[in-house]
Amino acid sequence: MLKYIFREVSRGFSPGLRRFSDVKVTENVAESPTFPHLIEQASLYLHWPYCLRRCTYCNFNKYIPKEDNEDIMAKCLQRETETLLQLSQVSCITSVFFGGGTPSLAHPSTIAKILETVSNQVYLSDEAEVTLEVNPTPVGMSKLKDFHFAGVNRFSIGVQSLQDEHLKSLGRDHSSLEALQTLEEARRLCPGGVSVDIMFGRPEQTIESWSNELSEMLRVCDDHVSLYQLTLERGTQLFKQVHCGQVTMPTEEMTAEMYRCARKTLQQHGFQQYEVSNFAKNNSQSRHNLSYWKGKQYIGVGPGAHGRFVPLGEGGATREARTQTLEPDVWIREVQQRGHGTRRRIQLGHLELLEEVLVMGMRMTKGINHKHWELFNPELGLHEIFGASPVVQELLQNGQLILDDRGLRCSWDGLAVLDSILPILLLELDKQSFPKAAS
Known about the structure:
Blueprint: H1 2-9, H2 36-39, E1 41-48, H3 70-88, E2 92-100, H4 108-121, E3 129-134, H5 138-142, H6 144-150, E4 154-160, H7 164-169, H8 176-189, E5 194-200, H9 207-218, E6 224-229, H10 237-243, H11 252-268, E7 272-275, E8 278-280, H12 287-293, E9 298-301, E10 306-309, E11 320-324, H13 328-338, E12 342-347, H14 350-361, E13 368-369, H15 370-376, H16 382-386, H17 390-397, E14 401-403, E15 407-410, H18 412-415, H19 418-430
Parallel strand pairs: 1-2, 1-9, 2-3, 3-4, 4-5, 5-6
Antiparallel strand pairs: 6-8, 7-8, 10-11, 11-12, 13-15, 14-15
Helix pairs in contact: 1-14, 3-4, 3-13, 4-6, 9-11, 14-19
C-alpha cells in the first residue's frame, strides 16, 4: 500500500501505471464515516497526455501525438469532466490543475471550454486557483496571455535547469534564456502566481554548480518554488545511459547535501518550506496541492488521471480510488461510449483512508493536527495510536518527530528523512483494528 501511495504523490497524481483489463470494484468494504464538508467539495485535476518529445528521464503518462486530434481530446475532457462531476455530486470545485504531458500545447480555447464546463455544472469561484503547467518554449510563452484570458491565474513553469548542457542531456526542448523569458512574461501576467519547477540530482551535477544555479534562479523567480530530485526510472533513455556508463549520477550523499543546500538557501531568500518539495513566500502556497496533502476529495479527468471521491451519484457512501484508462486513443473511445474512461475503482477501507491521510499529511511541515485527524478517525487520536510506541518514542527523543498539543509532524531534520519515518508510522497504524478493504 505504501508504494501505491508514494507512486501517486508525484506531479498531478497522474504517473504511468500498469493497464487494467477491466474495471474492478472491491465489494463488501466497511463504510467509513463521512462529513458533509469533506464530500461537498473537491479539487479537479485534468491530464493533457501529449508532448512533442519525451524527455530522457520521464516515465509519466505522456504520448507523442500521431495526428492533430485536439478537438476530439477537448470534447472528451469536457464530457468526462461533466460525467465525473455528476457522479461525485460535489457542489463546489475549489481548484483546477491542468497537468501532463504538456498542457501548454493545448489551444487556450480548449482550457476556456473545460472551465466553462466546470462552471456550468458546479460552483467555481472567480477566486478559485486555476493552474496550468507550462513548457518554457517560445510557443508556450506566446500562449500565456491567452491562457490567462481563458481563466488561468497560476502558471507552473517547468524550468528544470538553467544550464543549457543539462537541458540538452535531459531532452528538454527549451534553453535557459527561453525559460527566463517565459518566467518574466508569466510574472507580468500573474504576479505572485507563478511557480518554478527545478530539478536536482541531475547527471554530472555537483553541489557547487547546484548552489550557483539555485542562486541565479532565485534572482528571477516569483513566490513559489518546487524542488524535484531526479530519480532513475526503468525504461527511460536516461536509465539505459547510466547503466551503459555513458553518464554518471550524483551519489545519494551528494543529492542529500543538494537538498539541504536548497532548503537553507531558499529560507535565506525568504521562502518558507510548507511541504517536502515545496517552498513559498507571500502566502503563495499551491492551494490545489494542499488539498491533496490534507486528504480532501479530488477528481481526476483525462488519460491516466487519478481521483479520490465518494460517488454519491450512484448511491456510494465510501471514498473510492479511481484510475482512468492510460492510452489516449482507448480512453477517447471509452469516453465516447459511456461518458468516462474509468478503468479501475477501489473502495477505500477505513485503514486505507487513514494511511493516505497519514502519508500525505506528514509531507507538510505543519503535519497533521488533532482536529484534522479526528475528521477521519474520531475514535482514536494521534496520541493513542502513536504515543505509546517504543519505536515512535525513539523518533521523538532523537528530535526527528514531534507529537504535542498541535499534532504530529516532522522536525526540520526529520522531514529530510521522511521516507524512513513513514514506514514506521504506517506499521503502528496497521496495528490498530481498523476495517481494511476486501482483497
